[in-house]
């Protein structure tokens, strides 16, 4: 996974070393990190943590579960196998042939015969999960692995409960050699995942906030811009802009980009332009347009702070807004189900939901 160099990347070697150091100490073998969307989690994992872990001799399978919400078990198998592969496919394949619990599906045969990666997704989930265990068994006992699961909250979905249980069992017995980083943007869901007794990952990893980028990041990027532009930016200007953009690194970069293209217009103009762009994103409009009217009405109420969405009073209000009779609890539940599956809402308590993305929330609350 050699990514081209990004001169705007603000490296965080100390943070990477800190997480790896904890694993070296051995008191914990997993950690879960949360931060809101676009705050730099994946960037840190892919550009800082994983390269540092590789240097330290870890195999580093990485999976962003958002790219695999339908077939997470297969995707997991794919990334782990890709990480293991260079070190010994022949042995693994020989083993797979011998695995009796596995029905020799056409897909599996394809894999064994060497038509690898692409075929993993075709496996049945029931086969993929035990195969993962087999694969991990093939690792030499001294080989360390850092499994990085991004958007880990996907594992908390009821339909993936079986996978979560088997994954936990697989990891449990291999704690000395396999370390795990879970990351995600939904604090509420991650809290449930690691904090509820009934959940497979209960107390399995300490859950902590991912340290956000701040002044040093702004300072470093400001210096870079000033090296490129005839119109230097002051530290005050860029810090204010970072603040005005919700301390979001992605938006801050958009602002710098705009500034570099129109520097003579000044910082304030670049900021205004960026804010307009970010908080008026057409993709928000599109998401919005594609929602059924009831879902929209529910979202609007939640954005304005309504908590008990199933109550008779709220349902009456919904009906009134839509010019229809009050929807039943079941109908509201269906709408909420659509919105949570779409990662738009996240459940806090029964009846209480939050809009997951701050930018969408801002947009919903805008005066109309
Ligand atoms: N260390 C960094 N240096 C420079 N730019 C960064 C850094 N971290 C993040 N960014 C910028 O912010 C953008 C979003 O970061 P990233 O995708 O890592 O966030 P995330 O927290 O994983 O978001 P999401 O929850 O939406 O997946 C990056 O594409 C990049 O432009
Ligand atoms: Mg990410």
3D structure, described in words:
This protein is an alpha/beta fold and 368 residues long. It has three domains: 13-209, 3-Layer(aba) Sandwich (Rossmann fold); 215-279; 282-365, Winged helix-like DNA-binding domain superfamily/Winged helix DNA-binding domain (Arc Repressor Mutant, subunit A). 52% of the residues lie in helices and 10% in strands. The chain has 17 helices and eight strands. It has helices spanning 13-25, 41-55, 72-84, 89-98, 106-112, 125-137, 161-172, 187-195, 215-228, 235-244, 249-261, 267-278, 282-290, 293-303, 312-322, 329-341, 358-365, and strands at 30-34, 58-59, 62-64, 144-150, 178-184, 207-209, 345-349, 352-355. Strands 1, 2, 3, 4, 5 and 6 form a six-stranded parallel β-sheet that branches. A two-stranded antiparallel ribbon has the order 7-8.
CATH topology of the largest domain: Rossmann fold
Our measurement of the CA-to-CA distance between the termini, rounded to an integer number of angstroms, reads: 45 Å
Mean pLDDT: 88
CATH architecture grouping of the largest domain: 3-Layer(aba) Sandwich
């Amino acid at each position: 996974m050699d990514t081209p160099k990004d001169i705007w990347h603000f490296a965080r070697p100390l943070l990477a070393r800190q997480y790896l150091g904890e694993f070296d100490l051995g008191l914990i073998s997993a950690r879960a990190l949360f931060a809101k969307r676009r705050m730099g989690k994946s960037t840190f994992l892919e550009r800082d943590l994983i390269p540092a872990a590789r240097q330290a001799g870890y195999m580093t399978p990485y999976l962003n579960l958002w790219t695999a919400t339908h077939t997470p078990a297969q995707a997991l198998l794919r990334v782990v196998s890709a990480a293991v592969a260079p070190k010994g496919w022949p042995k693994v394949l020989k083993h797979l042939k011998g695995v009796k619990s596995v029905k020799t599906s056409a897909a599996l045969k394809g894999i064994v015969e060497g038509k690898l990666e692409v075929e993993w997704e075709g496996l049945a989930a029931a086969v993929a999960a035990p195969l993962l265990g087999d694969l991990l068994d093939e690792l030499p006992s001294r080989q360390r692995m850092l499994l990085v699961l991004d958007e880990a909250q996907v594992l908390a979905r009821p339909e993936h409960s079986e996978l979560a249980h088997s994954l936990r069992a697989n990891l449990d017995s291999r704690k000395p050699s396999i370390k795990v980083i879970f990351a995600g943007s939904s604090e509420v869901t991650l809290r449930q995942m690691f904090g509820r007794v009934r959940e497979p990952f209960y107390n399995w990893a300490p859950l902590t906030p991912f340290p956000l980028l701040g002044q040093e990041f702004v300072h470093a990027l400001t210096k870079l811009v000033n090296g490129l532009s005839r119109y230097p930016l002051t530290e005050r200007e860029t810090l204010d802009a970072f603040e005005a953009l919700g301390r979001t690194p992605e938006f801050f970069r958009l602002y710098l980009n705009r500034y570099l293209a129109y520097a003579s217009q000044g910082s304030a103009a670049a900021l205004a332009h960026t804010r307009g762009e970010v908080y008026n994103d057409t993709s928000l409009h599109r998401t919005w347009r594609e929602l059924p009217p009831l879902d929209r009405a529910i979202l609007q109420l939640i954005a304005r702070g309504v908590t008990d969405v199933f109550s008779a009073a709220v349902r009456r209000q919904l009906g009134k807004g839509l010019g229809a009779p009050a929807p039943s609890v079941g109908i509201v539940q269906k709408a909420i189900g659509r919105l949570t599956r779409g990662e738009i809402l996240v459940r806090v308590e029964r009846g209480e939901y939050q809009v997951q993305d701050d930018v969408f929330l801002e947009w919903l609350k805008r005066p109309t």
